[in-house]
Amino acid sequence: MKPSIFLLLAATLVSAKAQNSKYESLRQEVTQSIARGNAWLKAKQHADGYWDEPALPAFTALALNAAVRDPSLEKNAKLPEHIEKGFTWLLAQQKEDGGIYNRGLSVYNSATAVTALTAANRSDFEPAIVKARKHLIDNQWDIGKKKETDNPNDGGVGYGSNKEHSDLSNTYLAVEALALSKKIIEDGKHGDQPDLDWDAAATFVSRCQNLEETNDQEWASNDPKNKGGFSYSPFESKAGDEKTPEGRTALRSYGSMSYAGLLSFIYAKLSADDPRVAAVKEWLGKNYTVEENPGMGAQGLYYYYQTMAKALTAANVDQLQLGDGKKADWRTELANKILSAQREDGSWVNSNGRWMESNPVLVTSYTVLALEQILDSIP
């Protein structure tokens, strides 16, 4: 072996060892925190198998997803009794149209359920997943001229309780569920199955982004504060709007939807060098923080943490490039922030109750899932 090659291999091994050593303490702390969070959730399960509110099966699905992704569970082993009971209850909520819901919000509940059922990796769950996938696909908007995305809602998905509009939050949850569960239908054992119109979905997501070159909506703005980031829908930003120097009304970009937009683009298989992907990563780098949901403060903070962990992992971001030229070790910073907020009983809760984040079952599920994503992403 040439000396230069030997030195290169040695340097690579040293670098890998240093990387593992760097995260070893974090790995242990995160693993322990996940165990405490899941233990708290287990104690909050109702005798019938559901969590918190039977009208919202998504809460049960989130808790189950957190449970089956716990690193302490043995792969391919029989699931613990309380998890089996939870899945039995969840499957019993499936309706004739394939959706897994009770009182409305069929897309939100069904998408979250499909993601949890897929995470369990159980072949006996597949028929239910296939039916629920079709329900999600059936809820993709296509009004006006078919297959032409001539309406700003086209390609997106809404809550499913009524068809008032599509939004990025439900679209991201639906495309995530469909992307993660797609492996179940690919071998053809469930017959011919429909699929989402992924090009239309990417068009809808693009119409939620502040990027004039690819968003045909009049409000899209390239001003430095907003360029590349995302709003809630092509019609609304939960962060409000503002007048641009040219006198137009622009929808403000904010953190949680910008991570949801990045994740949606990745699931729609846009390349890393696509200008839409590059633009949102630049906005996220300029606005990076674990102290708040940028543009929203404490509102939706734990939803933000979960989408951040998922999106940066899916985008293969090891160190996030910041606006000042520095790089952020997002795993360590996000994990430490989350660990410091865990309550003595193992749960988490947001002091700001918007979007139900005063509910500790919801927030603890979000947070355990964020930690599990961080753990899975450690090199």
Could you give a short description of this structure?
The protein has 379 residues and is an all-alpha fold. It has helices spanning 3-43, 57-68, 81-92, 106-119, 126-138, 168-181, 198-206, 255-267, 275-286, 301-314, 330-341, 360-377; strands at residues 241-243, 249-251, 320-321, 327-328.
Topology:
Elements: H1 3-43, H2 57-68, H3 81-92, H4 106-119, H5 126-138, H6 168-181, H7 198-206, E1 241-243, E2 249-251, H8 255-267, H9 275-286, H10 301-314, E3 320-321, E4 327-328, H11 330-341, H12 360-377
Antiparallel strand pairs: 1-2, 3-4
Instruction: Indicate the CATH topology.
Output: Glycosyltransferase
Radius of gyration, CA atoms, in whole angstroms: 21 Å
What is the annotated CATH architecture?
Answer: Alpha/alpha barrel
| Approximate strand percentage | under 5%
Give a short account of the largest sheet: 2 strands, antiparallel
User: Strands of the biggest beta sheet: in what spatial order?
Assistant: 1-2
Strand and helix order: HHHHHHHEEHHHEEHH
**Which residues sit in consecutive blocks of at least 5 with pLDDT less than 50?**
none
Q: How many helical elements?
A: 12
What is the end-to-end distance?
A: 28 Å
Domains (count) = 1
Q: In the CATH hierarchy, what is the class?
A: Mainly Alpha
Q: State the shape.
A: globular
- What structural class do helix, strand and pairing data support? mainly alpha
Q: Share of helix among residues?
A: 40-55%
* Nearest-integer average pLDDT: 93
Give the total of beta strands. 4
